[in-house]
TrEMBL record:
Native source organism of the sequence: Euphydryas editha (Edith's checkerspot)
Cellular-component GO terms for this entry: cytoplasm; nucleus
The name this protein goes by in its record: WD repeat-containing protein 37
Keyword field contains rRNA-binding: no
Residue ranges of the region described as Disordered: 222-242
WD repeats: 181-213, 254-295, 296-330, 339-379
Length: 467
């Protein structure tokens, strides 16, 4: 609305704020002075109306956000209240669960599963079941941030990958950038720390992935903010010690892709790397030599993500072809399984600690899969916005970042747990691209989110005391 107002002013007003035709000499216009004065008053009223409408628009947006959250909670409880009661029948080793609903008396039998709740549990449900508090903000990138990751336990560091062609390593405690990597010539699309060494892996729009030294200098001064450090690279007023260390040369460059490398990850042990590219392939590399060991083909469209299992030589790749694939490298000849179920581009797929896979998609859904059964998903989570790079905690909490600036939390059964606060004072202002959990229980910040508002937010997410 402000831009519309400025366009109107540019068309009708001069530098002194008066309409151009009102500044004309009497000989240059045939408009009588009384009408000119009246027109001036009318345009002043229009300007005031624009200001009023803009203020009302901001207030309405906040009210919409509050009502949307309330509606989500009520719809969740409403779905659960369809369940009336459960009867159990046990006979030897076989157990059956009979679920009777108010709207349908059909009995549903399940073996060794209890996926429904009693009305007593439902009536005591209070959402959210987790308290989410914004603790710290990290700023300094010059463009949108594509990815955020956490370092191995014991290191209070996070890494970020940005469209500004840089990757940064940040101190969680100081909210400072300690190391800035500038070796890529294109957007940096992902970042991952090595599981036990001080090196990092990044993928880029320059068709490469880089492995670089990620050891940081903890003796950097703590006085400057992260934003001042990153933007002060060329200022003479800052001394050398006031800026983050800048690294321009990788330890090794992984080449071979013919398109943008959109994601990369370490296989368990850290000796091999998997990359995913827009050239429709995923490559397996030897980190020490930089050699491409295998080219994985089969996807029909560009790849969007790649992720490795934490303890087994398993990899999942996601694609715009609406599928994700599970690649098994535990045997000399690898096998592959194709998972179908989404109707639009699969934006990410990650492993859980329980050997499940969680996939997110532009079809506004997140699905939980058993790696041994690719026929149907165990749970499906529906939302109102496209899903970006999901993350699953060691405790099985799914964090879902959305295009609509929201971040929602669910469990592996598909039950909604919480939504991160978002208002004009906190939360992201543009789409949230990536999230990451901290598994170090000693940290007061255990969750990070990043987005195209160029910010990284550190959160404390803890179970509610009422649980």
């Amino acid at each position: 609305m402000k831009s519309s107002k400025r366009r109107l002013q540019a068309l009708t007003e001069g530098s002194d704020g008066l309409p151009n035709y009102l500044k004309m000499e009497d000989s240059e216009t045939s408009i009588p002075p009384i009408f000119r004065s009246r027109l001036h008053e009318l345009f002043s009223q229009i300007e005031k109306e624009f200001d009023l409408l803009y203020s009302e628009n901001l207030n309405l947006q906040e009210k919409i956000d509050i009502l949307s959250e309330k509606l989500e909670r009520e719809s969740y409880v409403g779905d659960k209240q369809n369940i009336d009661y459960i009867e159990f029948e046990t006979s030897g080793k076989n157990s059956k669960v009979k679920s009777v609903t108010q709207s349908n008396s059909q009995k549903v039998k399940a073996s060794h599963k209890l996926k429904v709740q009693t009305s007593k549990i439902v009536s005591s449900f209070k959402a959210p079941t987790y308290n989410c508090q914004l603790i710290r903000e990290f700023t300094g990138h010059k463009d949108g941030i594509w990815d955020v990751c956490t370092a191995r336990p014991g290191q209070a560091l996070i890494g970020t990958a940005s469209a500004d062609h840089t990757a940064c390593v940040w101190s969680v405690e100081w909210a400072k950038c300690l190391l800035q990597y500038t070796g890529h010539s294109g957007s940096v699309n992902s970042i991952r720390f090595h599981p036990n060494r001080d090196i990092a892996l990044t993928s880029s729009g320059d068709n490469t992935a880089h492995v670089w030294q990620a050891a940081v200098n903890w003796d950097l001064p703590r006085g400057q903010s992260s934003e001042e450090e990153l933007e002060g690279g060329g200022e003479e007023s800052l001394g050398e010690g006031d800026r983050p260390e800048v690294l321009r040369t990788p330890l090794i460059e992984l080449t071979g892709h013919l398109g943008v490398v959109v994601a990369a990850d370490w296989l368990t042990g850290g000796d091999h790397v998997i990359t995913a590219s827009w050239d429709r392939t995923a490559n397996l590399y030897d980190v020490e030599t930089g050699d491409c060991l295998q080219i994985l083909t089969g996807h029909d469209h560009e790849l969007t993500h790649a992720s490795a299992h934490h303890s087994s030589r398993l990899v999942v790749t996601a694609s715009r072809d609406t599928t994700f694939r599970l690649w098994d490298f535990r045997e000399p000849i690898h096998s592959v399984s194709v998972f179908q179920g989404h109707t639009e581009s699969v934006t990410s797929a990650v492993f859980t600690r329980e050997d499940k896979v969680v996939s997110g998609s532009d079809d506004r859904s997140v699905k939980v899969w058993d790696v041994r059964n690719m026929r149907s998903a165990l749970a499906t989570i529906r939302s109102d916005s496209s899903v970006n790079r999901v993350a699953v905690s060691g405790a099985g909490l799914i964090a879902i970042p959305h295009d609509n600036r929201q971040v929602r939390l669910f469990d592996l059964l598909g039950q909604r747990l919480a939504r991160l606060p978002r208002s004009s004072r906190q939360g992201h202002r543009r789409m949230v691209t990536s999230v990451a959990w901290v598994e170090d229980i000693s940290s007061n910040i255990n969750f990070f989110s990043c987005g195209f508002d160029r910010r990284i937010l550190g959160w404390s997410i803890q179970p509610s005391k009422d649980n």
